[in-house]
Design brief:
Blueprint lengths: L4 E5 L3 H10 L4 E5 L13 E3 L2 H4 L4 E4 L3 H11 L8 E4 L5 H10 L5 E7 L14 E8 L1 H12 L4 E4 L2 H24 L8 H4 L2 H15 L2 H10 L3 H24 L8
């Protein structure tokens, strides 16, 4: 199956990233509830109505989990007969269920989580991985084939539950730690230019990336993943244990030694 038109709903950081990547492979139509975001779209990317976007060969929902149900309700009766609906929400258990249940039973569906994106890159590059947690319909299989053969992505099939269990520690927790680093201003420390050690710079790098994330993206990782609470509690308990060990070691230090 050939994919010649791509509709993108949501023209934030990731929607723009997808649009610029797909513009080399076909016509890209973009829609956002905030019209100001799409009025300067160019280079093969065209603003369009929701009706027009929903009939593209592939419709990609580049919206946070909090907006997913509303968008699915808006497009379910507008979709083209062979249109594939693909999401990119970074937590999959609830998002996959919504995608499958909110659309008509004969709708082509591809539930995904791209393991890449801005700000670390500006376009999709071959060799990057994309997780697929649900695939329904022949056109959805065709879109997966397009992602693999035309974009060079590596598609990995994982159940939504397995995905979220792993991502609670590999995404939710790093975002949580990075947000804390940002809140204590690690990027603005005095003398960083001459005193920073390599391990600090690695922490500073994740803090810098977190600064680029929207509140919606952070909330998706922390709230819509059902295992994120457990991961945060596990981490905070480990911090408390470490602090207790430090205090115990301090209490056992020889008199006169600096604390």
């Amino acid at each position: 199956m050939r994919f010649e038109t791509f509709g993108i709903i949501g023209y934030g950081h990731f929607g723009q990233f997808l649009a610029s990547s797909l513009a080399r492979h076909g016509k890209v139509l973009v829609y956002d509830a905030d019209e100001a975001k799409i009025e300067h779209a160019s280079d093969g990317i065209r603003p369009a109505s929701l009706d027009e976007v929903a009939t593209a060969d592939a419709v990609i929902l580049a919206v946070p989990f909090a907006s997913l149900a509303v968008v699915l309700d808006e497009i379910r009766d507008r979709l083209g007969r062979e249109t594939v609906v693909m999401d990119v929400v970074s937590s999959k258990q609830r998002a996959t269920q919504l995608l499958v249940e909110a659309l008509p039973p004969d709708a082509n569906v591809l539930a995904t989580h791209p393991l890449f994106g801005p700000p670390s890159m500006t376009r999709i590059e071959p060799g990057l991985r994309i997780v697929v947690t649900a695939e329904r319909g022949p056109a959805a299989a065709g879109l997966r084939e397009f992602l693999e053969q035309e974009l060079g992505l590596i598609a990995v099939s994982v159940s939504p539950d397995e995905h979220d269990r792993a991502m609670a520690y590999m995404q939710s927790l790093p975002f949580f730690i990075a947000r804390a680093l940002v809140s204590i201003d690690v990027l603005e420390l005095e003398h960083r230019d001459v005193l920073a050690i390599p391990s600090f710079e690695k922490l500073a790098e994740i803090a810098f990336i977190e600064q680029q994330h929207t509140v919606d993206m952070f909330d998706t990782s922390q709230i819509s993943n059902p295992y994120a609470d457990e991961a945060r509690r596990h981490f905070l308990a480990a911090l408390q244990q470490l602090q207790a060990e430090i205090e115990a070691h301090r209490a056992g230090e020889p008199a006169g030694e600096d604390g």
